[in-house]
What does this fold into?
Amino acid sequence: VSYLDYNATAPIRPEAAAAVIEAMQSVGNASSIHQPGRRAAHRVDLARRQLAALLNCSPGEIIFTSGATEANNLALRSTYIPGRPLVTSPVEHPAVLETARMVTVERPEDLVLLPVGSDGLVDLNAVEQVFATRSGGVVSLMRANNETGVLTDLRVVAKAAREVGALVHTDATQIVGRLPVDVAELDVDLLSLSAHKFGGPQGVGALYVRRGTPLPPRSLLVGGEQERGLRAGTLNVAGIVGMGAAADVVRRDLSEEAKRITALRDRLERLLTCALPNCRINGRRDQRLPGVTSITFPGVPADAVLAAMPDVAASEGSACASGAPTPSHVLLAMGLSREDADSTIRFSLGYVTTDAEIEHAAQAVARAVTQVRSALADGSR
Ligand code: PLP
It folds into this structure.
């Protein structure tokens, strides 16, 4: 099987798997003061330093969570202030978009969705327009889109937000471990990530909270005082340790890996556009994550293509949306028709992807698309 669904989840890195197993075989609650507890706390401290090194922040600025969904919820629920704007975009992951809708349900005028172009770029000038008349609040924009890979230049956003005292949150789930992420350079106050997108285990993630950012405790979970009162609940020591190990590995050869994966992605696009000349690549091509491509095969339903190539693991739009009857909200926001959105497949590559897999996948996709297209033509004859 060619596994080309890294944006849904990446294979666990061997170093991370080993760290998880080792941690799971040791008893200890990181909040306990006896020796086993202290040992667990030390493991967590190391992971916090490893993750902080990947993000260029200090370890004390990291709050461990169960993943990016929780980190996004925590970020928005603890920063939105009724009466102040919550600025986001229609191409965000549902963990941001639905949370934003929910917290503003009684004051829908507070929710501002910035316009998105057909290339998937959010219109950043619109941030300045919002802040020309309103101040404070929070802006939440993803650094990299999970369906198209399109990147957002957050420094422009941060500058505009800073001038009016608004906080900046970014969902960086798809970029952490794939391209360098430096929170100081991005100038954001809050950043969400999830371990399983970069080779750590599933069910663990983090929220970076810049020192001095005022977050009220208990805005999401009520319970113990873990994570400075911001995230109650026994720490997932094994998950956290696995995430730390993955962070440590990816940090070492991020740029080399990104170059290799970009070349593979470009090769896949070349092979497919050659074999199927009317296919279309979605999103701004020169401002994307290395390993992602979203391709529309006009008139050919993606679910039928995926079913016709069981040995290629790719996805329709996003994994979170597939299975649901609604087409990708990201592609619709970029102006694709419903039919085109339903005829789009996302391929996402990563650190284990090989040349041979790309070769094989390109042939399988071309064959499957041709087969489905001719079956449809036969059916309508
Ligand atoms: N944000 C983005 C951009 C994602 O791609 C995902 C996962 O698909 C999430 C958030 C949610 O991550 P998790 O399911 O690990 O909580």
The radius of gyration is 21 Å. The chain has two domains: 2-9+253-380, 14-252.
